[in-house]
UniProtKB/TrEMBL annotation:
This is DUF3386 domain-containing protein. It comes from Microcystis aeruginosa Ma_QC_Ch_20071001_S25D. It comes from the Bacteria.
Length: 215
């Protein structure tokens, strides 16, 4: 392994392990949810269990319930603590190019999804990934320093055709978190989306009455 590879791995690992995640004692939590999309408003309840499984109740529309479930799974996945060696131990890391903002590009080989990253300071500020016919890039614009790691709270995702590079859509995310007990829990997520045809939509997930489950 070259010195460059070792350094690239160390830089990425430092940023990876600096992400805010829920610890092994995470008991799970419940919340009331309000989903607002255009003129439509839906209310229900969500429960995230200690094993990170998600339950959505009180929503009559099955498609809406599935949408909330999928969005909660995305949120929970980013808070789940992962082991670096388990996730990236077999991958090789090399430096790409520095960009004008001072971010360092990290090129990853061995990752089945073809992921590359940019790291600024001790934060991963960009993820580029190919999944089948779709390529996407996530850029972090603002983060929250919890004192126990960072949470991306303003970021965008750009989707393109992996072969032609044709723009397929863009989503801008803005999130807020509330500290309940020892844990930061999501209290709001707003998604402004633009599809390939230029049509715009806004979806807002508001979480209230956040309560940790009794462990």
């Amino acid at each position: 392994m070259t010195v460059a590879t070792t350094n690239a791995r160390d830089i990425f690992r430092s940023a990876y392990e600096n992400r805010y995640t829920w610890d092994e004692g995470f008991p799970g939590y419940t919340a009331d949810i309000i989903l607002t999309q255009g003129e439509e408003v839906h209310t229900g309840k969500i429960q995230v269990n200690a094993d990170y499984t998600v339950e959505v109740t009180g929503i009559d529309d099955e498609k809406v319930q599935e949408s909330i479930y999928n969005q909660m799974r995305d949120i929970v996945t980013h808070r789940k603590r992962g082991n670096f060696e388990g996730s990236h131990g077999k991958n090789q890391f090399n430096f790409g190019e520095d960009d004008p903002t001072g971010a360092v590009e990290i090129l990853v080989t061995g990752d089945a999804m073809g992921s590359n990253y940019k790291v600024r300071g001790q934060e991963i500020c960009q993820v580029s990934r190919v999944m089948g016919p779709m390529a996407f890039t996530i850029n972090t614009e603002e983060s929250l320093d919890t004192g126990e790691g960072y949470i991306s709270i303003r970021y965008n995702a750009i989707f393109r055709n992996a072969k032609t590079d044709e723009l397929k859509g863009k989503r801008d995310f803005k999130e807020t978190y509330e500290k309940i007990g020892n844990y930061y829990l999501p209290s709001c997520q707003v998604i402004n989306a633009i599809d390939a045809g230029g049509e715009k939509s806004t979806t807002e997930f508001t979480f209230t009455n956040l309560q940790l489950l009794q462990s």
